[in-house]
């Protein structure tokens, strides 16, 4: 994101019930990567997507008997902006550390199955689903990385390592299970011809 960032601030108040509205607002804002500076007051860099979703939230809040004030800020004081950038990166670091933990678990799982010689199609499917989750997770975090979190590069490399490890595992499964299936099929053909 450029050095001269424009900001958007949403301050809102919603009725206590139904609580589902508060939860929906909170989840949407967290998915956007906002930083709460006070209860029910959040800030984010003003990107097209962030502005569009926050404006939609503002309409939803007012349509549900709530109050929402939307502010567009051209510039904060230098110290404030520096502090906000730190808060955004602190959130991304926490998310990426958790993501890296997920990558480690994924690699440990493949290592465990490899050491057991458990080369089955079921394991390929299971690990492929886990890898797809990691990819989606990383994409969501990267989308919220407005200020170049220092862990983003490491997380990309770790995800690539997961992809390479999975690819090698899948080829090992194919070499093991695929050739066994071919041998069983071939043995069955030879046996039936010998019976004739």
Structural features, described:
The protein has 196 residues and is α+β, with helices and mostly antiparallel strands. It has 2 domains: 7-75, Alpha-Beta Plaits (2-Layer Sandwich); 82-195, no CATH class. The protein has 5 helices and 4 strands, in the order E-H-E-E-H-E-H-H-H. The protein has a 4-stranded antiparallel sheet with strand order 2-3-1-4. Helix 1 (19-32) packs antiparallel against helix 2 (48-63), helix 3 (78-116) runs parallel beside helix 5 (152-195) and helix 4 packs antiparallel against helix 5. It is elongated. The relative contact order is 0.12. It comes from Paenibacillus solanacearum. This is ChrB N-terminal domain-containing protein.
Tags for this model:
alpha+beta, Alpha-Beta Plaits, single chain, 196 residues, 69% helix, ChrB N-terminal domain-containing protein, four-stranded antiparallel sheet, ChrB_N, 2 domains
Question: Strands, helices and their partners?
Answer:
Elements (H helix, E strand, L loop, with lengths): L6 E7 L5 H14 L2 E4 L2 E5 L2 H16 L3 E7 L4 H39 L4 H23 L8 H44 L1
Antiparallel strand pairs: 1-3, 1-4, 2-3
Helix pairs in contact: 1-2, 3-4, 3-5, 4-5
Short description:
This protein has 196 residues and is an alpha+beta fold.
How large a portion of the residues is in β-strands, by DSSP E?
5-15%
- Class by helix and strand content? alpha+beta
- Report, as a whole number of angstroms, the end-to-end distance: 74 Å
Low-confidence stretches: 182-193
Query: How many beta strands in the DSSP annotation?
Result: 4
What order do the SSEs take from the amino end to the carboxyl end, as H and E? EHEEHEHHH
Sheet with the most strands: spatial strand order: 2-3-1-4
Mean pLDDT: 89
Rg: 25 Å
Q: What oligomeric state do these chains adopt?
A: single chain
Tally of distinct domains: 2
Shape: elongated
Q: Specify the biggest β-sheet.
A: 4 strands, antiparallel
Task: Determine the fraction of residues in helical runs and give it as a percent range.
Answer: 55-70%
Helical stretch tally: 5
Pfam family, one: ChrB_N
Domain ChrB N-terminal: 22-177
Protein name: ChrB N-terminal domain-containing protein
InterPro entries: ChrB_N
């Amino acid at each position: 994101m450029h050095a001269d960032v424009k900001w958007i601030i949403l301050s809102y108040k919603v009725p206590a019930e139904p609580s589902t509205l508060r939860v929906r607002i909170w989840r949407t804002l967290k998915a956007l990567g906002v930083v709460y500076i006070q209860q029910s007051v959040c800030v984010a860099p003003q990107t097209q997507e962030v502005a569009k979703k926050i404006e939609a939230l503002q309409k939803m809040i007012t349509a549900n008997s709530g109050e929402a004030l939307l502010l567009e800020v051209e510039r904060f004081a230098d110290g404030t902006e520096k502090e906000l950038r730190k808060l955004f990166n602190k959130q991304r670091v926490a998310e990426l550390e958790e993501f890296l933990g997920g990558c480690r678990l994924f690699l440990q799982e493949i290592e465990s199955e490899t050491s057991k010689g458990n080369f089955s199609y079921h394991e390929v499917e299971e690990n492929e689903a886990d890898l797809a989750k990691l990819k989606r997770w990383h994409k969501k975090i990267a989308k919220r990385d407005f200020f170049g979190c220092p862990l983003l590069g490491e997380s990309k490399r770790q995800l690539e390592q997961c992809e390479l490890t999975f690819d090698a595992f899948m080829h090992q499964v194919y070499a093991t299970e695929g050739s066994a299936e071919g041998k069983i099929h071939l043995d069955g053909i030879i046996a039936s011809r010998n019976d004739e």
